[in-house]
Design a protein that fits this description.
Elements: H1 11-56, H2 64-78, H3 86-94, H4 104-117, H5 125-137, H6 139-143, H7 147-166, H8 169-178, E1 181-182, H9 190-206, H10 224-258, H11 264-280, H12 290-296, H13 305-319, H14 326-344, H15 348-364, H16 367-378, H17 383-396, E2 407-408
Protein name: Voltage-gated chloride channel family protein
Transmembrane segments: 25-47, 59-76, 152-177, 189-209, 229-255, 267-286, 306-331, 343-365, 377-397
Keywords: Membrane, Transmembrane, Transmembrane helix
Length: 424
Amino acid sequence: MTTSNNTEHPDGLQLAALLGFMLKWLPLAVVVGALGGSASALFLFALDWASAARLLHPWLIGLMPLAGFAVGWLYLRYGREVEAGNNLLIDEIHDPKNVIPLRMAPLVLGGTVVSHLVGASVGREGTAVQMGGALADQLTHLLRLHHEDRRILLMAGISAGFASVFGTPLAGAVFALEVLAIGRLRYDALLPCLVAAIAGDQICLLWGVHHVQYAIGAVPLPAPWPLLATALAGAAFGAVGRLFATGTHALGAWIKHRVRYAPLRPFLGGIVVAGAAWLLGGERWLGLGIPTIQAAFQQPLPSWDFAGKMAFTIASLGSGFKGGEVTPLFYIGATLGNALAPLLHLPFALLAGLGFVAVFAGAANTPIASTLMAIELFGAEAGVYAAVACVVSYMFSGHRGIYRAQRIGLAKHRHPLQKAGKPE
């Protein structure tokens, strides 16, 4: 007699449970998507204004220390409970305790826009994800959701924010499932996350947002050398992603130990970043750096570009400026791929695109979401190469990434002396 791991229920009860689940989560996920997509649209419009203002008035860079102090003071005064940002969302999904305060959304929105206005090298994913999660969590009290439902709600909010800010609904849906724990996905949240991601992306587009387009050009057919070269590049992308995550965490810990008063940390960081930009002529490493990312797909760039952006971003985020890590990782990956292309005899655009997603895959430990992002941004033809680059980067990036709250579900590999079935 054989046994099954699946719980057996009469077909009628299974169908009723399925219909109940869908009737509950489909409209709820659409609402979450509408909230996250609308917030992302507002954020992206504000971000465009801030970036344009900084380029029009370069003297704003000189205000970076004061802006950093102001944002640090606001978080010290009003935002201590939400200071952890993305890590707070991940922790609440793992161990639900308290509803995310609504003030997380305006604080991170204002803090990120101000950071970009003065040129701090930060991204936008963290802001969109935090807004999506905080807005979604406000439904917890309204609908009196239990812990398990709240977990799914928060994951849907993360999906909506990520999908809408980048215009990648498939990657957004899987990102929320994949980012929580290395080696494990939560399929019970798959439908709500997918619906919220699609709704968030569509709502954001309805508000009139236009996402940046990247042209990867002709993709060579899979062959031994291009695939091997992609794997070699993937190892480099993973190592750089690991260095970025380690450097950001190390600087953050060091400055917290040395500077007890929180607002002074971004004040000092602003002095360093603004001073370095003027002394080194490093304005290209400030802000999002979208023009340089686009250039990496078109022409050779200085081979040290990725290192400059990494240093400026580590200094900005590590000292306490608000924003995200992902767009700077896109910059680092695209310019690193651009530098490696002649060495590996691959097209600039192809390797820039692979670096764009693969450094992020390694730093965030999200190879599946990153591969889907490549397909959504560059087309299905790049899928095989993107998968190789992202998976190899993931393997070479270690077990710690940019999100401290991320847990290890299953180790990335098993030690030869380790007993089968035992986690590393």
